[in-house]
Amino acid sequence: MLASLFASIDMGVMLTDLEHRTLMVNRRFCELFGVDGGQVVNLDVEEVREAVRARIIDLATWEANLKDIYDRPQASQVDALTLKHPDCTLRRETHPVFDPEGEVVGRLWTFVDQTDESRRQEHRTLLHRMSTLFDPEPARIYQDLVRTISAHYDSTCIVSLRQGDIMHFHAIASPVPGVEAMTQNTLDESYCQWCLAKNGPLIIQDARQDENYARVMPAQMGITRYMGVPIWDAEGETVGTLCILDHRSDEVLTEDDLQFLQLVAMRLTAELEREAQIRDLERNLAEVQTQLIQSEKLAVTGQLAATIAHDVRNIVSAMRLDLEDSASPELLDHLDRFGVLCHRLLSYSRPKKLEVASVDLANVLRRTVDLFAKHAEIAGIKLTLHKPEQIPPVRAIEDRLESLFANLILNAIQSTPAGGQLVIEAAPTQDGRVAVIFSDTGPGFPQGIEDRLKRPFASSRAEGFGLGLYSCGQIMKEIGGTIQLENANPSGARVILEFLTV
User: Fold this and answer.
1) Mean pLDDT score, 12-25
2) 474-486: per-residue pLDDT in tens?
3) This prediction's pTM
4) Which position among 354, 374, 488, 501 has the lowest Cβ density within 10 Å, counted as fewest Cβ atoms?
5) Of 252, 276, 300, which residue sits at a domain end?
């Protein structure tokens, strides 16, 4: 009856006497520990332990725990046991076995494989930690992501970007000495070629089992296991891969691992796009600096010309009065032309106004929300946009309006904990304006926040620059709108923008 019971349950079971000798094991126990059930019951205590020692990570702790349990016959214990080759997490439970008189005559052990759930929990923990990473320099973030994945799988992890037939290693981390010095590989000598051709996630559990995989350089070097997912650019085009590579084909990679890597790839895609935008801004900044220098030179020249033109015009006006009765009509015409030229020089020196125009606010809002949707998803923030079918156009500068919304969305994502939400609502007001309200479930604004709308370089975050809210205030001032900051009840922050309609 006991043998039939052991065979019918899907957990590893072992029955021993009080001298540690194995009386009975089931098939699942043999599978978990890689032993032969027929032999185990015929071995002495030390031989049984020797058969499973190769799978035990911490031998000293394991042996000390066994001695403690058998020294206390009536003791019970529930804990976790981690095995290696391959990695496995078991829920271990042991209780005494009693005879009809209530005397302890043996010990029952059960082992339940919780590897999948343990990995899922570890993935959730890692994803939450990675979603909270922030650094002004995107390269430091994706290098940290790669190091985290490498440590988690104890494998080489690479972000590769394709340029023609070459895969350039944009970030790399590895437990193998010397690998991190590598910079590139040819596409036809990498597993990534199949991931890119498929344009989707790929697991190669053992490259030796397929002649196509077995021919490439990593397989010939003993790197037989691969998992890769594509990385896309802002237009949705595949530009590279995020992958892990190692020699441990005996450890099975699952769909859970693939989904984990895909979520990390989404964050990487966002950081690579942010890096590209920063580089564009740096190039634009260099151009703007050059233009500013030229503009300053022109401004100085214009001021000098205006001063001279003013003086010359006064002199010409005086000369014309003096010569009104004695000079020829031709000379007077020349003096008049000289006066017109001075007037034109003076008019060129006057400053020009900003180009405020009619802007489709709904379109700018939708475009900006779409840009940050993946970022919010990785951070665990629910991003929602509510707006009516028709919103009247507003007076604004389109590029500046997009920058305004991006600043407010990014601030909310960074301040709201995972599981929170950011709701954006747009609607006409009763006084003929259009209001846009950003509401998050974060900790709310600190005291004195309104000052940051007027003063740059003031931030409560160590990594902040203090320009976000200041920029928002300046943009609304330029277009004649208003901005209001307030804390919600019971928690959260609200930013209320009001725009003039056209």
Assistant:
1) 92
2) 888 889 999 999 9
3) 0.50
4) 354
5) 276
How confident is the model over 178-209, as pLDDT tens digits? Answer: 999 999 999 999 999 999 999 999 999 999 99
- Residue 227's alpha-carbon distances to 208, 223, 224, 453, in angstroms, are 15, 12, 10, 48
Same-domain pairing of 143 and 265: yes
Range from 61-65, 92-96, 298-302, 306-310 carrying the lowest mean pLDDT: 298-302
Strands 12-17 and 22-25: antiparallel
Reported as a single tens digit per residue, the pLDDT across 40-49 is 888 888 888 8
Inter-residue contact 124 to 153 (CB < 8 Å): no
Model confidence pLDDT, tens digit, residues 265-289? 999 988 988 888 888 888 887 777 7
- Give the single-character DSSP code of 201: -
Please report the pLDDT score of residue 307 as a whole number: 65
Domain that holds residue 60: 2-112
Q: Which of 306, 324, 348 is the last residue of a domain?
A: 348
| Secondary structure class of 255 (helix, strand, coil) | helix
| DSSP codes, 415-480 | HSPTT-EEEEEEEE-TTS-EEEEEEE-SS-PPTTGGGGGT-SS--SSTT--S-HHHHHHHHHHHTT
CA-CA distance, 23 to 16, in Å (whole number)?
5
124 and 37, same structural domain?
no
Q: Which residue has the higher pLDDT, 304 or 201?
A: 201
Q: Which two tokens stand for residue 328?
A: 């020829």
How high is the pLDDT of residue 306?
63
- How crowded is residue 365: how many other Cβ atoms within 10 Å of its Cβ? 20
Residues 151, 256, single domain; the answer is yes
Dihedrals φ, ψ of 131, to 5°? -70, -20
- For 102-147, the three-class secondary structure string (H helix, E strand, C coil) is CCEEEEEEEEEECHHHHHHHHHHHHHHHHHCCCCCCHHHHHHHHHH
DSSP state for residue 370 in the 8-state scheme:
H
Residue 7, domain CATH: 3.30.450.20
Domain count, the chain: 4
- Is residue 379 scored above 80 in pLDDT? yes
Among residues 406, 410, 403, 425, the alpha carbon closest in space to that of 376 is found at 410
Sign of CA dihedral 307, 309, 314, 316: positive
Do residue 327 and residue 366 come from a single domain? no
Q: From CA 496, how far away is CA 425, in angstroms rounded?
A: 10
Helices 255-323 and 138-153 pack at an angle, to 10 degrees, of 180
Q: Which residue has the tokens 């056209």?
A: 502
Same-domain check for residues 392 and 490:
yes
Q: How many CB atoms lie within 10 A of CB 123?
A: 18
Of 353, 359, 387, residue with least CA distance to 500: 359
User: Taking the CA atoms of the chain, what radius of gyration do you get in angstroms?
Assistant: 36
State whether 454 and 470 are in the same domain: yes
